[in-house]
Amino acid sequence: MDTSAPEEIDSEKAPPVAPFSQLREPPTTQRGARTRASLVKAARKVFERDGYLDTRLTDITKEARCAAGSFYTYFSNKEEVLAAVLLEAQEDMMHPGMGRVEGTDDPHAVLEASNRAYLAAYKRNAKLMALLEQVAQVEPEFREFRRRRGEAFIRRNARGIADLQARSVADREVDPMMASRALSGMVSVMAYNAFVRSEGQEEEGSPVDFEELVATVTRLWANALRFPGHR
What we know:
By secondary structure, the chain is mainly α. It is 63% helix and 0% strand.
């Protein structure tokens, strides 16, 4: 087992918005910045309300209360404005996961805080996450963006697991990358089921209690990695 493999991602951050590199430079005037911000805000609202496929550019400009022609001053098409929405939200929704655990840190507290931050960000952006899942099915660029986002999260968590192994806190017999793929995938699916699939389906069961969700995924992580006191 190589616990040093994830070290190459020390400086890794959220995945770059590579397929969206054609986005135009932000406007230099205050009026232009306000108009563009209004369009992005309106686009997010309409996308989340109507879905990607059913959203029309006229719906966005109507919501933003600006002329239809103004849209093309800032964006070429629907894909570009969705890219701008994701770019604006990525600092919140792309929480990197469990970072390096320092020698003085309580590993269980770090794990719980990381899970809490991820799940809270997912809950805040549940509609946008659902939208990303939808558009990734039909647009290759967004599918690649989703893949890179998932990989960044997994690799950061793998580095955290390797740190814990080096401190003899986590089971040294598991591969950190493989363990991260399994455990990160579990949390991601649980978040999707709790905050996306459950929306509008309250009649099928009680809403997931957020604190219980955090406690459960943290305990499963700790048990799987055989934290002291969890073996």
